[in-house]
Prior knowledge:
There is one protein chain. This protein is α/β, with parallel strands linked by helices. The protein folds into two domains: 9-49 and 111-324, Aldolase class I (TIM Barrel); 56-107, Alpha-Beta Plaits, CATH 3.30.70. The protein contains eleven helices and 13 strands. It has helices at 66-70, 94-98, 113-121, 124-127, 144-156, 171-178, 193-200, 204-227, 250-264, 281-286, 301-313; strands at residues 9-19, 27-32, 53-56, 76-79, 81-84, 104-107, 109-112, 132-136, 160-165, 183-187, 235-242, 270-275, 321-324. The longest helix has 24 residues, at 204-227. One iron/sulfur cluster (SF4) is lined by residues 56, 61-67, 82, 99, 101, 103-104. The site of one iron/sulfur cluster has 13 residues, from helix 1.
Amino acid sequence: MEKGSTDPSALVLEIMRMSTEDGPGLRTTMFLKGCSLSCRWCQNPESISAKPEVRWIGNRCLGCRECLSACPVSALSCEEGITVRRNLCTGCGSCAEECPASALEVWGRRMTVEEAFKELMKDRAYFGTDGGVTLSGGEATLQAPFVKALFTRLAKEGVHTALDTCGACSTEQLETSCEQADLILYDLKESDEDLHRRYTGGSLKLVVDHFKTVVSLVRSSRLHRQVWPDQREKRLWVRTPVIPGMTARRDNIQGIARIILEHGEGLVDRWELCAFNNLCRDKYRRLGKAWELEEADLLPAEEMDALVQAAVEAGADADLVHWSGMTRNIKE
Length: 332
Ligand code: SF4
Ligand code: SF4
């Protein structure tokens, strides 16, 4: 929250309009910057740092070097193109302001709840009865006061709200963020503790503990609804990224099925297996980061079908498990 202000703010990375992948109906997804995990397959690497980040767009650059003198901390150098020394850069944006060719952009813009609300409400016309707003990341719960206040504001206008979370936050952050969410999209990525740590950098135990927390919030909301029918009822979807050579394993999907059955049976409305793609590889390049999955292939549709089948064999309800995303033709 800004000093002296009662309107919480958050570092917003991007607003994606007309999304069909982050909950029901047509939605606007707002991505917040800052994440507690560092998944090796991350599709939004620019969302991990909780600081604004500068990117250089080489094909726009005139080579004028105006940006070098604009930088107050000498974080830029020019050899073969502009390089940002990220350990020095504070994300102040002076270089982008001075650049005559819009060849520098800053990822991450601070917005208050009121500013975000006004921006999101521009899309109201296409939300209809199913769609709405999803807050994603990064990890949106790390900015819990903003999430709660924004969802409260949207709910008052009758807009459906969804929270995308990996559960790697404090219990207080999770509960605060879920308070006004109609739908929680909960990531269960890996069912083996050691592999979870190796692939995401975080603890599976915390993620499972927080899955139980979310299930209990969903259960309470449904009980309340039975007594007060005009109360809003929470829904819960689980999402699993299916990554070749990592989480795309039969034993992993069956392990996640057991977590869902043990702790969330009857309360999970949908489980989505999300097929990997490497379309975000340019983001890694622009950040100057190597990415081990840059050349990884799409998975065949048959493999996704087999993983759905594995989930069903482990006891998951066949009507609840789906897969989504791009796949490759196995006959290629
Ligand atoms: S100010 Fe812009 S156009 Fe000039 S060198 Fe820097 S990035 Fe390139
Ligand atoms: S954002 Fe600010 S600190 Fe970072 S490179 Fe640009 S001028 Fe320098």
